[in-house]
Structures are given as C-alpha cells and as structure tokens.
Amino acid sequence: MSETSEPRFGRASANGIELAWAEWGDSAAPADRTIIAIHGITANLQSWGALAPGLTQAGFRFISYDLRGRGDSSKPASGYNTSIHADDLLGLLDYFVLPYANLLGHSLGAVVGLHFAAKYPERVHRLVLVDHGMNTPADARQTINSSFSRLTMTFNSREEHLKFFRESPAYPNWTKYVEQFVAYDAQVQPDGKVRTKVLPAAAEEDLNSQYLEEFLPSRLYSSIKTPTLVLRATIGTLDGGKSGFILTAEGAQTVVRSIAGAKLVEIEGVNHYTITLDPTPQVEREIIDFLK
After folding, report:
1. Is the CB of residue 220 less than 8 Å from the CB of residue 118?
2. Per residue in 191-241, pLDDT tens?
3. Right CATH for 8-140+200-291 from 3.90.1170.50, 3.40.30.10, 3.40.50.1820, 3.40.350.10
C-alpha cells in the first residue's frame, strides 16, 4: 500500500479484547521501519496525528492504538496496569505479524513501553520515551488534573466539550491535530449529551498502580537492553510552566543513567501535552534521527 498522510482505521483482537488502531504509511514496510505508538493515560490514538505524517514521509510505517479502557477499544470494568497493557501490545504486534517494532510511548505509554521492553526484549527494535519513564511523581494527579477532571463530566453538546479543551492552558495553539484529538475523545450519548471515551475507572486504576512497588519504572531499567531515547518537555503544567512535570529534570537524568546507552534530549517550547499534539520540529527530527 502506498504512503498516505491520512490514516486507515481498524480493530485487532489482542489478549482477549479488541484494540482500535490507526495506521499511516506503507503497510508493507519492514519491522525496523515500523513504529507502534502508545498514548497517555487519558488520551487516545489521535494523540499522534501531528507526528505521524512527518514520520511517514521519512519512510516509517506508523501505527497508533487506543489502550484498553480508552477510545474505541474494549473497556473491561477492571484490570489496568502496565503489565496488562504490555500483554495487549504483544497481541497487537502478533496481529500485525510483526516480529518486532520501534516503540514510541508518551506519558503512561512510555511506562508501558518500558514494561514491554523489559518483558519482551526480542520484540523491540528501538524505544522512545516521551515525557515519562521515571517513577510517577507524587503530584502527578495535580499535574494532569485538567485531563482527569473531564472524565466524570457530562457536556451538553460537542461544542461544549470542544470549549472545555479550547479554554485549557495545556493547548496554547489550537491546531487541526488538537481538534482531531478532541473530536475523537467525544462520545455522544443517546440524549445528545457528550462524555469522554475514557473509562474513568481505567485511568484511576492505571494511575494508582503506578505507585505499587511491582510496577515502578525504576525496577525495569536494568532489564532494558534496546537503544533508548528520552524526550523531555521543558514547560510544566503548573505555576506558569515552572512546575507540574511528569518527567522532571532530575528524573530524566536518573532514567538515562540507569538504562545502558540511553540518550536524553530536552525539548524546548512544549509541555506534557503539546510535545505530541503540537510538537516543535525538534521532536520529529530527534525521533527520525534516532530511529534511522
């Protein structure tokens, strides 16, 4: 199939559930030119809409998917942690008949990528951790509060749902990719009201599990043997950008010191959300250079 800037959508049976996916680029590309992208805790597969076209033009096949409990994927009532997400990802690779792939994970997706690389090292070519990878900060809920607050909200219309995002300081520039992400997030109810497609219990269980000893990212570092790139957003979500980091400067240094051969790149001009939804050219350039 020829390259295209528009994604193809489908569903995959994986680990006993259905995962919704989107694919850009040449579906016949080899495994080492294939990227599997894993989104954050309250996000969806459209988190990558701004990056996928450029990476596709650089010769990569790009596949993103909705984590269980999000988007159009299955939403079990319980069973959410990075080990389960890693097993889902294994099923997705098997569905696409990929012996391995490059993993690109943002926020919770970065921790899922770490867990997968530790658990299934032979299935990972290269690993990119976008603005996470350290043990989750104690103030993470406050840092991502705007994302979590909408999970229990009901909006009167799509327009009101859109307005909620437009008014968020997390998205200083309103781009078509941010709008696509927001539109995909909306689940219209039979009465016309709108709720998020994220199952609130899924996000809560995933966040709570991050503080359990068995799921701490720091336990995984010594098991990571694949080449690893860490991208860190330098604008926080609190105090005018001075605080509210999911990946702190100190935490990022710990990650790269603890994973053999890991490389850290600080990305100027982006926060935890815009590093994927409204990225600077540096983000795309660093990923391409690393994967090539």
Report:
1. yes
2. 999 999 999 999 999 999 999 999 999 999 999 999 999 999 999 999 999
3. 3.40.50.1820
| Rounded CA separation 107/206 (Å) | 12
What is the rounded CA–CA span in Å between residue 35 and residue 30?
10
Q: Which of 63, 120, 108 is nearest to 81 (CA)?
A: 108
- Could you give the strand order of the β-sheet that contains 61-65, starting from the edge strand earlier in sequence? 8-14, 17-24, 61-65, 34-38, 101-106, 124-130, 228-233, 263-267
**Cβ atoms of 67 and 84 closer than 8 Å:** no
- Taking only the tens place, the pLDDT of each residue in 46-65 is 999 999 999 999 999 999 99
Q: How far apart are the first and last CA of the chain?
A: 22
What are the boundaries of each domain within the chain? 8-140+200-291
Q: Which amino acid is at 105?
A: G
